[in-house]
Amino acid sequence: MNVNGEALSVYLSRIALDPRRRWTAGILRNSQAAHAFTMTPFTGTRADNHVLHHIDSRAGQEPVLLVQSVRLPDWDRLNPALGAHPTVKDVTRFHLSLRAGQTMRFRLVAAPTRSSPDGFPERERGTKLPLHDATEQAAWFTRRTAHACRVDTLTVQPHTKRLGWKSSSRPGDNAPGTKAGSRTITHNQVAFTGTLTIRDPDELRTLAVFGIGPGKAYGCGLLALAHTAAPPRTRLDHPVPPD
Fold this sequence. Notes:
This protein is of the alpha+beta class. The protein is 19% helix and 33% strand. It has six helices and twelve strands. Helix 1 crosses helix 2 (31-38). 30% of the residues are buried.
């Protein structure tokens, strides 16, 4: 399919995470470890492969890692000792089937932010600030998706905080456990769920492939879609229903 002028395929990997394994605990606790794990089957950068991932670790349920990409992942590159057994599905046909007027279920874990016009001491103007108010978070989501769809129902819930780091040249930004020349960043994740009606299928495909909002390397931005007629689930383990 063509997205922003690129001919792309879309693949979705699903990995059940065993909390009893040490490497799983590292992924659940450390977003940098999760990012490194999701990049294992790819060559090139996250942006090259348009990799998005999301960890669903709700209480009382087995944690699941979803990894979406536009290149076929080679999970054989994983260390067999990890005991991970990814399943991969080509979901290109599903995205091509999207039509204006269709009603879909959706789930998005994102890190909604706003820009600070004045910045902070020792921080530049335009510093991103997390949105904590549910009404502002809902408005953020509606603005981001306005051209692609009409939001019919929307539930906004706090999800979790994910820690990562980004390059920095400012003195004193290095934090314990991070690499040199970096500073710790926190993504306050929010879960958006509900139903939508498609306005522009191409725009919705673009959002689904390229992600929504900041923090895409740290588990944010993956828009999960499913037909409303799909069998109900306790959670969206897949952005698409099974064939």
